[in-house]
Amino acid sequence: MRVSEVVTNTDARPPLVSRRRFMGGAVxxxxxxxxxxxxxxxxxxAASTSAASPSPIGxxxxxxxxxxxxxxxxxxxxxxxxxxxxxxxxxPFAPAPAPPSVKPITLSADHPQVFxxxxxxxxxxxxxLDDGIEKDPAFIQMxxxxxxPLTLSLAxxxxxDDYAYFEKLNQTGFVTIQNHTVNHPxxxxxxxxxxxxxEIAGQQQKLQKEYGTTPYLFRAPGGNYNAAxxxxxxxxxxxxxxxxxxxxxxxDMQYQTASHQLQPGDxxxxxxxxxxxxxxxxxxxxxxxxxxxxxxxxxxxxDITKYV
Length: 308
Fold this sequence. Notes:
By secondary structure, this protein is an alpha/beta fold. It is about 25% helix and about 15% strand. Strands 2, 3, 4, 7, 8, 9 and 10 form a 7-stranded mixed sheet that branches. It has a 3-stranded parallel sheet with strand order 1-6-5, with helices on one face.
């Protein structure tokens, strides 16, 4: 894929996010509230018929063994009764099929690839969560309860007030952490090549320091990138730029295809969001809605790091 100008819309990545959704807030922390609200607006008809809030969850606030639910005990799979009670009748996800012996997408640090789905035929999708504004303890318990893989693309400016929250998520064993820049600049293509490199390479260093992990995937804030971004990804040692095919709103998903259906290998984008950005809903409720969409269409969730 030749990238010579700001990418606007190709089959390899989603359309640029609209100003209404992403440009409502500044990059600085002082403007996070308005930024998050603009990122996660929901104008669908379903927004007026919100489902009831999930049952109260016993939140674990201590170490990895303190107050763990039955579904989070070592060696135990998700507890169907517990999930149904806590999460509005949801069932455990079917186990994902074994990933291919050869990854469908082969990434290279010499030539970072831009991708928004994985070419497979199994009814598998990949759930990714961006930025880090909301830090809901109940979501940590939800991750333990469902035991499905999630990919987190984290921006330092949005997580530095509580690094420990994402360490607790990391310790569940069900998440992988990837790069989303230091300061979450939505105008990446307008930055100099050096500034873009600083944003990406700087976040590599911060994630290594805080979580002992070296990301190999980059997600550009707002999906906005140009040739300088791809080159900065290469210089920073990352191997691919991960985009998406669907994005989760409060109750519904936005699809890029006219069929408005999930397809095998699709990457789904969601965000760390709370009541301030979700019109009073919690992040757990948003994820319940997302999981309902996935299960209703007969899909399960797999770990994208096993496929790319």
